[in-house]
């Protein structure tokens, strides 16, 4: 007798709504108000000293002369200091460039370790992990000298510089944004958290401007990395979750020489060699087949009062690189 073959029901594939087509320029305009509000808050958080006007330069020089101090000799000593400082800065920059290959290797090794752990533990209990490794855009706003960017899976790079100098007082914020997106593959609502991975390779400098003055001169900067999660289903792009981490804070303060009433230059430099994992912890609710925008921002906050700041993440060998954003789906 012929054998009866058992009937096996074919599994029905889950229907996943395709990713929406995105007009990048329209996206930037829609997300723009959110970004502007965040930058405004960061500016408000920047310390702003109160400067009380003191005697004029000529009055201070006259007072120094009456005390038997030659103002020209004071200014000459500052010019000599400037030559030494400039040489030290040039030497440090050259050393940073010389060590670039070794630094890049160490940073890439750190990133590879994180990414390897993700691939080995893509599923853990009821949670799943996804690596979103290619941004849809890298966008610089104002206040950045943009050297260029390259979008590549797992290795998207931006190169830029930020410079500010003021004989008076000024404060500002500049940022470069990476736009990633992720879609909930489930036909059911879910909860997520997210981790932005960023490698920073550059240099920074804060300095004061010399001069005849009785008020302290300042140059201060902070480099931060932030992650903001917004939903495409929300027309206002209200933030659903966010996180931030400080990569560097650098402050230079001058001190008045009470004998001369003169501010000498103070300069502080630092290498910015960081691998950061910035978390938006959540829980962040995402509807069925919902698409979220993941914005990774590298921002520079500064405040100067007769001072200056310089941040270099480009050109080569300096840059900011992002391997991507890890999305953890909890249910």
Give the uncertain stretches in residue-range form.
8-13
- From the spread of the alpha carbons, the general shape counts as elongated
Q: Major sheet, described briefly?
A: 11 strands, antiparallel
Number of domains: 1
Averaging pLDDT over every residue, what do you get?
A: 81
Helix fraction by DSSP (H/I, runs of at least 4): 10-25%
The overall strand count is: 14
Task: Please give a structural write-up.
The two termini are 50 Å apart. 24% of the residues lie in helices and 46% in strands. It contains four helices and 14 strands. Strands 1, 2, 3, 4, 5, 6, 8, 9, 12, 13 and 14 form an eleven-stranded antiparallel sheet that branches. The chain has a three-stranded antiparallel sheet with strand order 7-11-10. It has one domain.
Core attributes:
14 strands, 331 residues, 3-stranded antiparallel beta sheet, 11-stranded antiparallel beta sheet, alpha+beta
Helices and strands in order, then pairings?
Blueprint: H1 24-44, H2 57-66, H3 71-98, H4 100-120, E1 123-124, E2 127-132, E3 137-139, E4 145-150, E5 156-183, E6 190-208, E7 211-212, E8 218-231, E9 239-253, E10 256-257, E11 262-263, E12 267-286, E13 291-313, E14 319-329
Antiparallel strand pairs: 1-2, 2-14, 3-5, 4-5, 5-13, 5-14, 6-12, 6-13, 6-14, 7-11, 8-9, 8-13, 10-11
């Amino acid at each position: 007798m012929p054998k009866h073959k058992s009937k096996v029901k074919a599994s029905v594939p889950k229907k996943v709504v395709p990713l929406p087509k995105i007009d990048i320029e329209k996206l930037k305009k829609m997300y723009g108000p959110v970004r502007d509000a965040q930058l405004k808050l960061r500016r408000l958080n920047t310390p702003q000293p109160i400067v009380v006007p003191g005697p004029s330069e000529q009055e201070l020089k006259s007072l120094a002369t009456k005390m038997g101090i030659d103002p020209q000799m004071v200014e000459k000593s500052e010019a000599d200091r400037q030559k030494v400082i400039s040489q030290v800065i040039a030497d440090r920059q050259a050393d940073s460039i010389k060590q670039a290959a070794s630094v890049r290797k160490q940073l890439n090794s750190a990133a590879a370790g994180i990414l390897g752990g993700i691939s080995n533990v893509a599923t853990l209990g009821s949670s799943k992990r996804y690596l979103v490794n290619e941004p849809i855009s890298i966008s610089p706003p104002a206040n950045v000298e943009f050297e260029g960017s390259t979008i590549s899976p797992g290795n998207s790079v931006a190169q830029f510089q930020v410079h500010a100098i003021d004989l008076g007082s000024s404060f500002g914020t500049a940022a470069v944004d990476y736009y990633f997106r992720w879609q909930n593959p489930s036909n059911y609502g879910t909860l997520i958290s997210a981790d932005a991975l960023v490698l920073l390779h550059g240099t920074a400098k804060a300095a004061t401007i010399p001069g005849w003055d009785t008020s302290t001169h300042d140059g201060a900067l902070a480099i931060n990395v932030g992650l903001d999660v917004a939903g495409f289903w929300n027309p206002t792009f209200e933030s659903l979750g966010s996180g931030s981490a400080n990569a560097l804070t650098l402050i230079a303060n001058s001190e008045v020489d009470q004998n001369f009433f003169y501010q000498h230059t103070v300069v502080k430099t630092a290498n910015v060699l960081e691998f950061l994992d910035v978390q938006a912890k959540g829980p962040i609710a995402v509807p069925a087949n919902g698409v979220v925008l993941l914005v990774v921002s590298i921002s520079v906050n500064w405040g100067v009062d007769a001072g200056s700041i310089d941040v270099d993440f480009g050109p080569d060998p300096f840059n900011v690189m992002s391997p991507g954003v890890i999305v953890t789906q909890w249910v």
